[in-house]
Amino acid sequence: MVYNNKSDQKGFGFEYDVSSMFQSQGYLTRRGVPLSYGNDATDIDVLGIVFTNPFQGHKIICDCKNKTKAKPFERVFWAKGLGEFVNASNVFVALNKTQWEIIRFAASGGVKVLTSDSMSEYRKNQSSYGLADGQFYTHYEQKIKNAAKSSSLLNNIILNTKKLYLHKNPYVAINICMEFLTNIAKGFQHGGNHSKDHYDALKYLACELTVLVGLQILWISSDILGLPEKARREHISSKLTYGELDPGTARNLINTAKELANEIIKTSVPKAMMPKDVDFGEIVPPPYTSSLIGLIERALARPNAYLSMPQHLDFLLFEQGIKGRDYTDDEIRNLFGYTLSDEKFKVSRNILSFVRESCGLDWKSMWSKMENSSASPKSGSKEREESKPYRKWKKSSDQAQSEGLKPENKKQEESKPNERLKDALKELGLEGSKFEKQDKEPKMVGSVPNETNLKGEKSDHDEQIKQNYSVKEGKEVKFENGNGQ
């Protein structure tokens, strides 16, 4: 990896090298993940997450110090304690170089030491992608910092997004993600009022939060593994509704507040003017609950297709979305062992559709409005306008309106690698900079719309939210009446 100066190479550059090495081993990796407790805060230099059957999540952490006087023994103790706190499966300390006695001492405490030489051996012969590409995203991160200074709302979302990677309750974490994504979708609607850096920060957050949604789906799948179907649905609905509170406790609090409010009214409002009893109503699940349950049921039915879904979202959103880089089938096969036409990539598009329908995030509009405002890609990447692997798409029938845009000739799609690339990118709206006008955005069949639209108006589909959401092998996710069979 090439950096602009020695300071970059010694600082964040080393973290990117470590992140890239773990990514090549199959992990979803993130740098600088904050960890706070009370008024104290620290961060994890590199966090890696991978899932194995049956939905078992594994976290690794690495403390990175590329300095001459790195105090290796101190770093070993520090990393060991941090790993215990976050329940990491493995703990690493990365040093530029070290002595054998330090490696042996660390191993006695369950800590593995990496050096620059050993990382070269472990890393597979492949390029970094997504947020592990320091050559591209070190510059992009500066845009985010600039944008945070101009918006308190944006700064709050930025500060709290990475914390969600270590959130211990996936139900609460996914609710936070969905709330942030809804706010970001509204921000895109007012894109003309924002600076270039602000809009780039919105794009970054939309992608990062969507990866987090995919990750929380896997953590939830792990949590409910072994429960019968009815119990799974009730458990998910309850946790999304009440978070970390016990449902009975939450209802008691609401009833107590109701009684107190009515007593205050009786003692302070004249009888002739006294209104009816105050009723706060019931606490209801989020409007996207049924859709989310459907996605989780689908994941449980086909675990092998979903276990690496966060890594695929990382690639689609940060590599082909924000960077706009085009890949050949051979390049993608070198990274993952299969191409974009594989089932494992297809399931990632279900997450993109879920976010689009539940949060009002228009992927197509997001890319088209800002295709000329992203950071210039560095060597090894191509701008979207140069390659344009996603043009020449159009609506072909009424069925295409409801199922999304499809190529005119499916046989042609199957015979040409670039056409399969188009199919994989359609949910991201990356067909190109000039999109053909449509009367309305194509909808995923059976997806749950918001209870209210972005203007605050009541949706025509409120009743549909109440219907069961069932998943059938090899078919689009659909709503069905009755008992969902």
Q: How is this structure best summarized?
A:
With 485 residues, this protein is an alpha/beta fold. 52% of the residues lie in helices and 10% in strands.
Explain what you see.
The protein has 485 residues and is α/β, with parallel strands linked by helices. It contains 22 helices and seven strands. The strands form two sheets. It has a five-stranded mixed β-sheet, sandwiched between helices. The chain has a two-stranded antiparallel ribbon with strand order 6-7. The longest helix is centred in the middle third of the chain and has 29 residues.
Residue fraction in strands: 5-15%
Note the main sheet. Answer: 5 strands, mixed
End-to-end Cα distance, whole Å, is 53 Å
| SS field, number of helical segments | 22
**Order of strands side by side in the largest beta sheet?**
1-2-3-4-5
Write the layout of secondary structure elements.
Layout: H1 6-10, H2 12-24, E1 28-37, E2 40-52, E3 56-65, H3 72-85, E4 90-95, H4 100-108, E5 111-115, H5 116-122, H6 134-148, H7 152-161, H8 170-189, H9 196-224, H10 229-242, H11 247-268, H12 289-301, H13 303-306, H14 309-322, H15 329-336, H16 343-359, H17 363-369, H18 384-387, H19 398-403, H20 410-415, H21 417-425, H22 462-465, E6 468-470, E7 478-480
Parallel strand pairs: 3-4, 4-5
Antiparallel strand pairs: 1-2, 2-3, 6-7
Helix pairs in contact: 6-9, 7-9, 8-9, 9-12, 9-14, 10-12, 14-16
